[in-house]
Design a protein that fits this description.
The structure holds two protein chains of two kinds. Chain A is an all-alpha fold. Chain A has a single domain, classed as Four Helix Bundle (Hemerythrin (Met), subunit A), CATH 1.20.120.80. By secondary structure, chain B is mainly α. Chain B has two domains: 66 residues; 38 residues. In chain B, 78% of the residues lie in helices and 0% in strands. Chain B has five helices and no strands. The longest helix of chain B has 23 residues. The N and C termini of chain B lie far apart (68 Å). The chains are: A mainly alpha, B mainly alpha.
Chain lengths: 230, 105
């Protein structure tokens, strides 16, 4: 009886085999109560998490397995400003710049949902400007390391050869993400400014772009901790 | 829509989180600046890192206000990485010992 009751409450059996796959994947089910663009961005960020994790885990592996001393990042990334030798100062400034850009981005999302076109576009452009500043400082850092410290992907005069390859791989891939984010944010900001989303009455794209930007900041938190501070 | 309830809070929320992230970043920088070493250094770095990551994901990325299904779908899969980290740590240790035994003399 109970079996009967269960089967009768179930929908009729769908087709099997490949047609069944098509039926299932197109059966109008929705798992996440968010706009599809936002769900897709989250899933992309999840996959990106695994890519960055692979880089960081391989960095852990080479750092653990080398018998040569690891160069001290605190000293490698030190700068002399006004006669004072300050360890890791450039990286600290880059961290603050990226956090600030995340703050302005969060506010841009908020103003977007309030329908404030001008402030949303302005805050997004400020965010992109901070991102560009970050990339600029990274370019300076790379130049200094390559030209003055003689650090190469295959070796360096300071210690373990793996330092260079890990550094260029991890910060390079992150810098690529920041650069792509700057372009992405600028494009969306200009479309906000033009009024595209005001006409459509939908500012979701600002939040989706914001998710990407916060993720770039999030990855930097891990790189800062594991590569620069460890 | 679920996004609506999560986006109606005042701007001050973001300013507070921003300030908190600044303070936490300053703390992690101080760990290096004050030359804290050993186990204390590593624990402090990890604690500040996790606090910052948590604030960014929960508040800035609005994860706090999403439904549990989305939270689980995004936050649980990265836990697999703990297995990868464990395996690669064992592997790194093995390579290190092998190099010591083979190249040390």
């Amino acid at each position: 009886m109970s079996v009967d009751a269960m089967t009768s409450s179930m929908p009729p059996a769908a087709a099997g085999g490949l047609p069944g796959v098509v039926t299932d994947f197109s059966s109008d089910k929705q798992a996440f109560a968010v706009p599809w663009g936002k769900a897709m961005m989250w899933i992309f960020l999840l996959s990106d998490t695994f890519i960055f994790s692979c880089f960081l885990v391989s960095y852990m592996n080479v750092r653990m397995s080398t018998t040569v001393p690891w160069p001290n990042p605190s000293e490698v990334f030190a700068l002399t400003i006004g006669g004072h030798h300050i360890p890791l100062i450039l990286i600290a400034i880059m961290t603050f710049v990226l956090i600030t850009s995340s703050g302005t981005m969060a506010m841009a999302v908020n103003y977007g949902y309030r329908g404030n076109r001008g402030r949303t576009a302005a805050l997004m452009l400020i965010t992109a400007a901070f991102g560009a500043a970050f990339v600029g400082m990274q370019a300076f850092e790379w130049t200094k390391l390559i030209l003055e410290e003689g650090i190469r992907p295959w070796g360096n005069p300071l210690g373990a050869a793996q330092f260079g390859s890990s550094f260029f791989m991890i910060t390079g891939f992150h810098g690529l993400h920041v650069s792509a984010g700057v372009i992405y944010l600028t494009v969306v900001a200009l479309k906000v400014w033009r009024g595209d989303y005001e006409r459509a009455g939908n500012y979701e794209i600002v939040e989706i772009a914001g998710l990407y930007w916060h993720f770039v900041d999030l990855v930097w938190v891990f790189i800062f901790a594991f590569f620069y501070l460890w | 829509m679920s996004t609506q309830e999560g986006t109606q809070h005042p701007i001050s929320v973001y300013l507070w989180i921003w300030l908190l992230l600044f303070v936490l970043s300053t703390f992690s920088y101080m760990v290096d600046y004050l030359h804290v070493q050993g186990l204390l250094r590593w624990s402090l770095i990890i604690v500040f890192m996790l606090l910052k990551a948590g604030l960014i994901v929960s508040i800035f990325m609005h994860m706090k206000w999403e439904r549990l299904a989305l939270k689980l779908a995004i936050l649980v899969p990265p836990l697999c990485l703990l297995v990868l980290i464990g395996l690669m740590a064992i592997e790194g240790d093995y390579t290190f010992l092998t190099r010591l035994a083979t190249f040390a003399h």
